[in-house]
Amino acid sequence: MTTKLHIGNLPRTSTDNEIEGLFRPFGLVSSFVFTKDSATGLNAGCGTIEMDSDVAAQSAIDRLNFSQFGGRTIGVSRARREVGKPK
User: Fold this and answer.
1) Residue 82, pLDDT score
2) Contact 68/11 with Cβ under 8 angstroms?
3) Which pairs with CB-CB distance under 8 Å and at least 24 residues apart come from 35-38?
4) 3-78: in CATH 3.30.70.330
5) pLDDT per position in the chain (87 positions), as tens?
6) C-alpha distances out from residue 42 to 7, 20, 26, Å
7) φ and ψ at residue 27, rounded to 5 degrees
8) 64 touches 74 (CB < 8 A)
9) Rounded Cα–Cα distance for residues 27 and 35 (Å)
10) What would the 3-class secondary structure string for the chain be?
11) What is the pLDDT of residue 85?
């Protein structure tokens, strides 16, 4: 079962490959999606990543939350479930 994480305060110049590479040491990355700015359609500086297991996700949170990436302090936490979506 995969576990979704929210990543915040990412540099807007980050790429999918950079983010996946950051999380890969902790386990298999199932998917990553940047949140897009509704006005411009560009990277909004945050996103959602799916890790292959809860253990991998927790390891990533423990190691990466409040760490430095691209000159910024990023936040990594469990994604909140979307309203109306089953768990």
Assistant:
1) 56
2) no
3) none
4) yes
5) 899 999 999 999 999 999 999 999 999 999 999 999 999 999 999 999 999 999 999 999 999 999 999 999 999 999 986 544 555
6) 16, 18, 28
7) 155, 180
8) yes
9) 22
10) CCEEEEEECCCCCCCHHHHHHHHHHHCCEEEEEEEECCCCCCEEEEEEEEECCHHHHHHHHHHHCCCEECCEECEEEECCCCCCCCC
11) 53
- For 1, the token pair is 């079962």
**CB within 8 Å of 26: residues ≥ 6 apart:** 51, 56, 57, 59, 60, 63
Residues 6+ apart with CB under 8 A from 74: 7, 8, 9, 10, 64, 65, 66, 67, 68
In the numeric block, which tokens belong to residue 65?
């939350």
- Which pLDDT score is estimated for 83? 47
Task: Find the length of the chain.
Answer: 87
